C-alpha cells in the first residue's frame, strides 16, 4: 500500500492540497457527487461520503448545549421511573384525590433521596466524619472511570476515521491473555515488570484490532461484522485458555481462572492504601487522553485520519492512502482497548481473571465515546460521568433500595438522546441548525418542483 502524503504539501502546515480536496470540495460535506479540479488541471469526480460517515459526523457535531440537555432529560426520565417504582409513592397514589400533597411529597422524597445518594456515593459524602471518608467516593469514581475511558478513547478514535469499532471487548480479552501468557512468570522488579506487562497487553490489543484494519483494507469487509465475530473468538479462546493448565489456568485448581497478577505488576495506589480504587492507572489514562488529542488534532497522521473520516473518496483524490488509515486507526483503537484490559488486571481485579474480565466495558465504551462526541477530552469527561454513575449506583441501592438497573436505564437514555439531537432541540424548543434549515429548504424546493412537474 502506498501513501503519497509523505509530501509536505499534504500536511496541515504545508500547501493544503488534501485540505482543499476534503474540506473545500462540496462532496465532502454533502450527499451528492462533486467534480473538482486537481493539481494537474484535470477534472475529477468525487463520490459523496458513505452514509456511515455521515451518521458518525452528525452525532459528533452536536453542541455542548444539546449534550448537557440530553443528560438532564435522561435524569428527569430516570426520576420519573424512580417515582413510579417507589413503594411510598405507590401507596400515596392510592388516595391521591383525598390528599394529593402526600403523593407529591413522596415523589420528591423518592427522587431527591435517590439522586442525593448517587451524589454522596460518587462525589462527596457530606455525612462523613473525616476528610478521607468524604472524598473516598470521588476516588472510587475515578477508579471506575479509568478503564472505561481508555476503551472509549479507542472507540472514539475509530469513529473519527469513520469506523465503528465494536470490538473493544475482544481487544481487552486478548490483551489480558497475551500479557498473562508472556509476562506473569518473568519475576522482574516492579520498575521493569509493571511497564513490560502493560506494554505487552497494549501490543496484544493493538494486533487484535489491527486484524480488523487489515481485513477492512484488503477485502472491504465491514468492520462491525469483523469486530463482533472477533469478540466471540476472543471470548471463547480466553475461556479455553483459563481452563487449560498448560495455558493460563491457575496451578493447583480446577477452576477456570488465571494466576493472580504478580504483585510487581500491579499499579500502586495513587494516594496511599486509604484510597485503594484510585491507582496510578488513572494518570496513565490522562496521558493516553493527551496522546489521542495530539494524534487526532495536531499530528499529520491525525489530519489524514480525519480526512478519511469526512469523506474517503475526497481523501483518496487528495492522495491519502485510505486502506492504510484504516489499519492505523484500528491498531491505535485496539491498543487503547488493550490499555483498558491491562487496567482491569493490573489495578481492578488482580486475583486472577477469566473471560468475563471485560465486565461489559467494551460496549459501555461505545456509549462514552458517543457522549464525548468522539473528542479526546470530551471522552475523558464522559468516562468520569459514567464512572460516577456506576460508583453512586451502589449507594443508591444500599441507602434507598433503588435497583442498579435504574442507572443503566439513565445511561441508555443519555445515548438515545445524544444520538438524536433534533429530538432534544424539539423538546427544549431550541432553534434549528443551519444544516437542518438548508435540508428543509432543499426538501421544500424539491417537493415544489415535483408538484409543478406533476401539474404540467
UniProtKB/TrEMBL annotation:
Keyword set includes Transmembrane: yes
InterPro entries per UniProt: ABC_transp_permease (IPR001851)
Primary location recorded for the protein, binned into one broad class: membrane
Region annotation (Disordered) ranges: 1-27
Pfam families documented for this protein: BPD_transp_2
Membrane topology: Multi-pass membrane protein
Transmembrane segments: 59-84, 96-115, 135-159, 198-217, 224-242, 278-296, 325-343, 355-372, 379-400, 406-428
Subcellular location: Cell membrane
Residue spans of biased composition, Basic and acidic residues class: 1-10
Alphabetical keyword list: Cell membrane, Membrane, Transmembrane, Transmembrane helix
PANTHER family (UniProt xref): ABC TRANSPORTER, PERMEASE PROTEIN (PTHR47089), GUANOSINE ABC TRANSPORTER PERMEASE PROTEIN NUPP (PTHR47089:SF1)
Protein name: ABC transporter permease
Species name: Microbacterium rhizosphaerae
Amino acid at each position: 500500500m502506498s501513501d503519497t502524503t509523505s509530501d509536505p504539501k499534504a500536511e496541515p502546515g504545508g500547501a493544503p492540497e488534501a485540505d482543499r480536496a476534503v474540506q473545500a470540495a462540496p462532496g465532502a460535506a454533502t450527499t451528492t457527487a462533486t467534480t473538482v479540479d486537481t493539481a494537474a488541471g484535470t477534472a475529477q469526480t468525487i463520490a459523496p461520503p458513505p452514509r456511515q460517515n455521515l451518521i458518525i459526523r452528525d452525532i459528533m457535531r452536536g453542541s455542548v448545549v444539546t449534550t448537557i440537555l440530553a443528560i438532564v432529560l435522561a435524569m428527569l426520565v430516570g426520576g420519573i421511573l424512580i417515582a413510579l417504582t417507589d413503594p411510598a409513592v405507590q401507596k400515596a397514589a392510592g388516595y391521591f384525590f383525598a390528599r394529593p400533597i402526600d403523593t407529591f411529597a413522596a415523589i420528591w422524597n423518592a427522587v431527591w433521596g435517590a439522586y442525593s445518594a448517587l451524589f454522596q456515593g460518587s462525589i462527596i459524602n457530606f455525612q462523613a466524619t473525616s476528610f478521607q471518608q468524604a472524598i473516598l467516593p470521588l476516588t472510587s469514581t475515578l477508579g471506575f472511570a479509568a478503564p472505561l475511558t481508555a476503551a472509549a478513547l479507542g472507540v472514539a478514535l475509530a469513529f473519527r476515521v469513520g469506523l465503528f469499532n465494536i470490538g473493544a471487548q475482544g481487544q481487552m480479552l486478548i490483551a489480558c491473555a497475551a500479557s498473562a501468557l508472556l509476562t506473569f512468570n518473568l519475576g522482574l522488579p516492579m520498575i521493569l515488570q509493571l511497564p513490560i506487562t502493560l506494554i505487552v497487553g497494549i501490543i496484544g490489543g493493538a494486533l487484535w484490532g489491527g486484524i480488523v484494519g487489515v481485513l477492512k483494507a484488503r477485502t472491504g469487509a465491514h468492520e462491525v461484522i469483523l469486530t463482533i465475530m472477533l469478540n466471540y473468538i476472543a471470548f471463547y479462546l480466553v475461556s479455553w485458555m483459563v481452563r487449560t493448565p498448560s495455558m493460563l489456568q491457575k496451578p493447583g485448581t480446577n477452576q477456570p481462572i488465571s494466576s493472580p497478577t504478580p504483585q510487581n505488576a500491579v499499579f500502586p495506589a495513587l494516594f496511599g492504601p486509604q484510597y485503594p480504587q484510585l491507582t496510578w492507572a488513572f494518570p496513565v489514562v490522562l496521558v493516553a487522553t493527551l496522546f489521542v488529542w495530539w494524534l487526532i488534532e495536531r499530528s499529520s497522521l491525525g489530519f489524514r485520519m480525519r480526512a478519511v473520516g469526512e469523506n474517503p473518496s475526497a481523501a483518496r483524490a487528495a492522495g491519502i492512502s485510505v486502506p492504510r488509515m484504516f489499519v492505523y486507526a484500528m491498531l491505535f483503537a485496539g491498543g487503547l482497548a488493550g490499555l483498558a484490559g491491562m487496567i482491569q488486571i493490573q489495578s481492578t481485579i488482580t486475583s486472577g481473571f477469566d473471560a468475563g474480565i471485560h465486565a461489559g466495558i467494551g460496549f459501555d465504551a461505545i456509549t462514552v465515546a458517543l457522549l464525548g462526541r468522539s473528542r479526546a477530552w470530551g471522552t475523558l469527561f464522559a468516562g468520569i460521568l459514567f464512572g460516577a454513575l456506576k460508583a453512586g449506583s451502589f449507594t443508591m441501592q444500599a441507602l434507598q433500595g433503588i435497583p442498579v438497573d435504574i442507572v443503566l436505564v439513565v445511561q441508555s437514555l443519555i445515548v438515545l438522546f445524544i444520538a438524536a439531537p433534533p429530538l432534544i432541540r424539539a423538546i427544549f424548543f431550541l432553534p434549528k441548525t443551519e444544516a437542518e434549515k438548508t435540508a428543509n429548504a432543499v426538501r421544500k424546493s424539491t417537493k415544489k418542483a415535483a408538484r409543478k412537474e406533476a401539474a404540467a
